[in-house]
Amino acid sequence: MTATPRAHFQAMALALGLALSGLLSSVANAASISYGNFGPVPPGVSFLNVTESSTTDPVPLYGPPATFTTGLDFAPMNFGAAGVAGAGDVTNGQLNFTVMAPVVGAINLFEAGDYSLVGIGTAATQTFAGAIVRATVTQVNGVNVAPIVLTPSSASVAFNLVANPGVVNPWSLGTSVNVAGQMASLGLGNATKVDVVIDNQLIAISEASSAAVIDKKEFIVDVEIPEPSALALAGAALCGLGMCQSRRRG
């Protein structure tokens, strides 16, 4: 059976991780960097305790963010992986922050960069990029609650020397956690505070006469704030599913 792209990515990531376990074990966990708090940015979005860390490389990798209407825009610094002449490389980065807003609708991630695959070799000379976004709701309708762990979202891309050769080829990926949708499906209220963890990985694998390089150049986190009409429609949908209390008879 032919493996799916995601299954192939996971299998290759595991294989490379095992192959490089000796190298990675010799690298001490890099200290984290806290960039502090940002906002509130209209219409009232705050990003608290924005922190990055890595288990493979010195930080910073993401670098300090700039704010825009409802998000954070990073200009990654030295966030790359390179393998030459049979060597391989893995770069892991993690970003942690808390979002506070009148209503958190969705948390969107977009990232992009470039990769190079050159030399003489086979499809075993490869580059990979992957990301997973995890969200935990800790406040509903402005009231602190026991953590509500939402279903995470992930995305990945993969390239090899046979199918995608060349120098400085572009890549990009995006993924999103629909916070409001998941909360509605659980029959809960509006999420107003959400803890977010984003894990990133870049992998480069080379052969004896080849080179593989991949870099992250752009990284954007955007928070969607639902319009009041959208919230009203969601409430009506819940009522249609019988989740609203019936009116008391007169």
Explain what this protein looks like in three dimensions.
By secondary structure, the chain is an alpha+beta fold. The protein has one domain. 16% of the residues lie in helices and 52% in strands. The protein has four helices and 13 strands. Strands 1, 2, 6, 8, 9, 10 and 12 form a seven-stranded antiparallel sheet that branches. Strands 3, 4, 5, 7, 11 and 13 form a six-stranded antiparallel sheet that branches. A hairpin with a 3-residue loop joins β1 and β2. It starts with a helix and ends in a 10-residue tail after the last helix. The N terminus and C terminus are likely disordered.
Q: How many structural domains are formed by the residues?
A: 1
Low-confidence stretches: 1-15, 17-28, 229-250
Shape: elongated
Number of helices: 4
Q: Mind summarizing the main beta sheet?
A: 7 strands, antiparallel
Radius of gyration: 21 Å
- Measured as a percent range, the helix fraction is 10-25%
Strand content: over 45%
Query: How far is the N terminus from the C terminus?
Result: 64 Å
Rounded mean pLDDT score? 86
Coarse structural class: alpha+beta
Order of helices and strands: HHEEEEEEEEEEEHEEH
Number of strands: 13
